[in-house]
């Protein structure tokens, strides 16, 4: 038996060793599902399966990267690089680019983000002269998104009387028309939205048997993590691709299904056994992540759900401290408590910021936490929310870049054709849009052919339009021989974007210029990183693909030591030694929107289960007595979920002063709305909680934190590197040279990096420090 298989228990080893056939692993949180997938892939490769024949679908790109890194450590080669691994969206975007022409799309199709989609829908609602208070664009978008994820195409929609009736009943009889127009406009713009990446993959596999055959034959082994949160569209793709070999392994936990609101279908997991012949079902029961207190508390919660598969989760880990519950007056106080508690834990247990996570139900709750952390000088990072790439000035630059690759991209064109102002007005744009529709051409093409069309646009404006088109074309020519950074830098100068912001002169304008500079820095970094890789060039199209599919979790390079702040939805699959779950209040968590039906409430409860099971060593729950909601200060009640936890796992506290907490004595402080029998006095602990011996992981981090000056720094010529040398890279961290290939200018090194996994770098460009 290979040595690494000893890192699994018997129950985990079974699905790893079953090489062929369909199998499902259903197990609770922290029981090693993701670990099983990782080891299974390593095992397959050791058995001689070509990594090109393995497809692994994960929930975030970050998860994929971590998995690849781990696999590379086990199989000890750069072969891991050849695995098809990533999110559904990133893997199938790649395949769609290869096959785009079959569906009538350009291979450099644009990926519209949610903002782009919203903007298209707003324009349609306006053009159709519909009441925007009835046809709320976000609702319309969500509805269209759910149709797409259920594979209800426009045609299918119009054949389905029930759907039309339902939309009519909700006072939106023209939803189908909007759907049709939306699809048309995206297609004409050579753009796919996020849902299209799945819908079009399905279309591709359904309509073209040879394409289906090609990918069925390629993906001999398919693995899916977090299977409980796949939607119908994703389900069908997996089903189609695995049909030939039926070597499919899915892992999931019905108790962690939290994306029903986005169309995830728990039945995918429940029906798996019906979909394939001879399905092997595996269960894992031992949790390796959390203390006994946390595991037991989580079990006691999920037990309240009626719809669930019966599962056992236990742990051999220590009891650990009880779950601390604290009540604060306001969200400001809540923030201060969390920040002080983090500070205190850090001091007491010698921890890093990265050992802590603050989880909340809604993004808006982050502000109070941020304020408090800032005051205490605790570095933090927010995941989710408006990302850098969604800021106006950044989207402006990106729109120019998108247009260069895909001149049909209508959202990009509309955004920048008159920004900075070139005297191209709304009337002109309307005329162009009408002509584009009439001639079935993109606006860009209409401008190119203006001479031959009778457009009723005056000569002066025509010249302005021509200048714009020529400018974009000149960028496109430059792009053929330049990298993403060179193109982007030229664009910011030549378009007048930066000058425009300079003219503005306000602090906001200056901040925007700084953001654009930051973007350029980011592009330069990206290009340099890509150029170091033997199989990439740092082109504009590589950069835009990276941006389009990056989620906020993915930008985490993990090289900065920060407290993590994120919504519970984003935290799925992750783990942290210390977890604070804040805002444990009725109407907030469970959310006011989710209390109408049992199934909604049960989804909220699963969300709480996910939150609690992220914690390894200790969990904290906080709630406030009053909170600003919709601009009003309202009384808040403690969440029913606190009461649902078996109270033997809880420790109820009230703050005394900044760093010391004393156990609750006066139960009246909770008011009349709480079952007081639950709030019995918890005995004060005579001694502080036992100091935890730092785990290997923490030790590793602590070692890494040694100030740089203590390490010998000797910069040598990287071209002289040889096998076994220790090096450090700005982005990938420390690493060891595995292999040197080529000579002179083409000399490459294969390096195993602590953070970046195995990379093949061109030494001519590689920014390495030899240690
Ligand atoms: P989730 O449901 O939250 O996604 P999971 O079932 O995927 O959890 P993993 O993330 O794979 O669980 O494992 C949880 C933690 O336990 C990880 O840190 C993992 O490395 C560790 N672990 C799992 N199995 C073992 C084992 N046999 N020996 C040592 N550590 C293990
Ligand atoms: Mg997992």
UniProtKB/TrEMBL annotation:
Residues 292-573 form the UvrD-like helicase C-terminal domain. ATP binds at residues 27-34. Residues 678-698 are annotated as: Disordered. It comes from the Bacteria. Its EC number is 5.6.2.4. It is an enzyme of class 5 (isomerase). One of its GO terms (biological process) is recombinational repair. Keywords: ATP-binding, DNA-binding, Helicase, Hydrolase, Isomerase, Nucleotide-binding. It catalyses: ATP + H2O = ADP + phosphate + H(+); Couples ATP hydrolysis with the unwinding of duplex DNA by translocating in the 3'-5' direction. CDD domains: DEXQc_UvrD, SF1_C_UvrD. GO terms for molecular function: 3'-5' DNA helicase activity; ATP binding; ATP hydrolysis activity; DNA binding. Residues 6-291 form the UvrD-like helicase ATP-binding domain. InterPro entries: DExx_box_DNA_helicase_dom_sf, DNA_helicase_UvrD-like_C, DNA_helicase_UvrD/REP, P-loop_NTPase, UvrD-like_ATP-bd. The keyword Protein biosynthesis does not apply. GO terms for cellular component: cytosol; DNA helicase complex. Belongs to the helicase family. UvrD subfamily. This is DNA 3'-5' helicase. It comes from Christiangramia sabulilitoris. The lineage of its organism: Bacteria, Pseudomonadati, Bacteroidota, Flavobacteriia, Flavobacteriales.
